[in-house]
Amino acid sequence: MKKRSLFMLICFSLMALAAGCKREDSADKIKASDYVTLGEYKGIEVTVDRIKITDSLVDRMIQRQLESNATVEEVTGRAVMDGDIVNIDFEGFKDGVAFDGGSAKGVDLKIGSGQFIPGFEEGLIGANIGDTVTLDLTFPEVYQNNPDLAGQAVVFKVTVNSISVSKVPELTEEYVKENTEYDSVQAYRDAIRQQLQEISDDNFENERMNAVLNKLIEISTFSAIPQSLLDYHADSYRKFMEQQVQMNLGVSLDDYLAYMDMTREEFEQVVSRFAEDQAKAELVERAIADAEKIKITEDEYKELLPKYLTDRGVSSEESLRKHETKEQTIENMRMTKALDFVINNAVVKENILDDTAVN
């Protein structure tokens, strides 16, 4: 997966932002009907993908778990084969001179994994422990790790220190009893199937919600978008991203963007698109809540609050109040209820995907 693709995946997976930015009262005094004219939102039609859970998909997931419990055993007396794990020392030369980043010692490499440039791993097949192999190779025309080497002819000298193989356990009754909480292969398979079904159902619900919301925005007409809403959602997104990269990666947002090959200007373009989408969604949901005279009673508030806190990653109502007032919480619940109303009245066509759609 390309770095830029990964970044966009992160962006769109964060649509439900955790509370992290104090909301200004001006953003809550907006009358949605002043800015949006709703389309016909009752009975809208959408198509949503659903993953079919098949025996082959269950088999693939189980195989992945077996592979995660594989052991590595060193082998001797034979040459390197495809699929082996080799420990190597290597040094890379361009025009007879060692280039930066082209040398390392004691590196474990699985042959056939595609970790190294084309020809490198294949060139080690047939080598024996202790052999030094000379590889005449050419870097790909597009090579983001070091653009200066893109398309360049180089020579690698590689010494094979050891050869190992990965031993994947077999799925047996004994393995299941020793390595899982289940007492039989069938019970284990049934549990994996149930987990996959739950994931498929959750994904379907999320995709259905997104499809309905996107359709609502598509069929609505916006005369303008309040700047206060745009500023709020943009600021929320920036602060959330700063917190996430610091917490999960221990780096600044600027360092993260540099790693992702993204400039600040490009990031701000993503922020702007995100803020506009969120602002439009909020206006549409508010307008529907107003049109349907949707309210949140005190009993509903108490019932909905635990999930609301969980969704926003806060532990208590007291902590939530650092980010939003009770009135703002109720308004958010009212908008969610409005979207649920539209979803429940939507005509949803399921597009069943086979297991090849799952990586």
Radius of gyration: 27 Å
* Protein structure class: alpha+beta
Uncertain residue segments: 1-20
What is the overall silhouette? extended
Query: What's the count of strands?
Result: 9
Q: Largest sheet at a glance?
A: 5 strands, antiparallel
Provide the succession of SSEs.
HEEHEEEEEHHEHHHHHHE
Helix fraction? Answer: 40-55%
Question: What fraction of residues sit in β-strands?
Answer: 15-25%
Task: Please characterize this protein's 3D structure.
With 359 residues, this protein is of the alpha+beta class. It has ten helices and nine strands. Strands 3, 4, 5, 6 and 7 form a five-stranded antiparallel sheet that branches. Strands 1-8 form a two-stranded antiparallel sheet. Helix 5 (227-249) packs across helix 7. It is extended and about 80 Å long. The N and C termini lie close together (12 Å).
Short characterization:
The chain is an alpha+beta fold. The protein is about 45% helix and about 20% strand. The protein has ten helices and nine strands.
